[in-house]
Amino acid sequence: MTIRPILIHPDPRLKKVCAPLGRVTPEIETLAADMLATMYNAPGVGLAAPQLGVLSRLFVMDCTKDPAAAPQPMVLIDPEIVQTSDELNTYEEGCLSIPDQYADVTRPAEVRMRWTGLDGRIHERDFDGLWATCAQHELDHLNGRLFIDHLGAMKRQMITRKMVKLKREMERERA
Ligand code: NI
Question: How far apart are CA 130 and CA 109, in angstroms?
Fold first, then answer.
């Protein structure tokens, strides 16, 4: 397992619609393991392939809140939403590609998702609470959409300006 660098917004690779994978290969297994390692290391509750610069429809998540509980790493390949609740939920979201910035985003409170697992089989499951928010946030990534795209233009531009500044500082430190 390798911890890989996470792309920081703004980056054109975070704005792309990612391509379906279709089937599970050893390369995808390696990528999924690296994504989980990178997510837990960050630490974060979700990570999508484009955040590592891989433009494929794949994300990982683990929204287990209790640090004493066993981890529940999930790998979702070619995920899709098959049903959403009318009921909405607002969560303060953040993103590993937009460090230290948080904002309220309203989404369906429950979603049913269908995806291919690392076992090559189709899975279907209902998610609620933080799991539902995270699943939708990560699926957004696969369509080139960030949580700040759910905010007003002013707020989005303010956060983007901060990220441009942050990236400039990071580059300076590296130089
Ligand atoms: Ni994110």
Answer: 9
Largest Cα span, the chain: 50
Q: Which of 93, 138, 169, 173 is catalytic?
A: 138
Give catalytic status of residue 138 as yes or no. Answer: yes
Residue 65 CA to ligand 1 center (angstroms) comes to 18
**Residue 62 · residue 76 · CB < 8 Å:** no
Which neighbouring-strand residues pair with 61? 46, 74
SS3 52: helix
Q: What residues pair up with 113 in beta bridges, in sequence order?
A: 81, 125
Q: What domains are defined for the chain? A: 12-174 (3.90.45.10)
96 CA to centre of ligand 1 in angstroms? 6
Model confidence pLDDT, tens digit, residues 35-90: 999 999 999 999 999 999 999 999 999 999 888 889 999 999 999 999 999 999 99
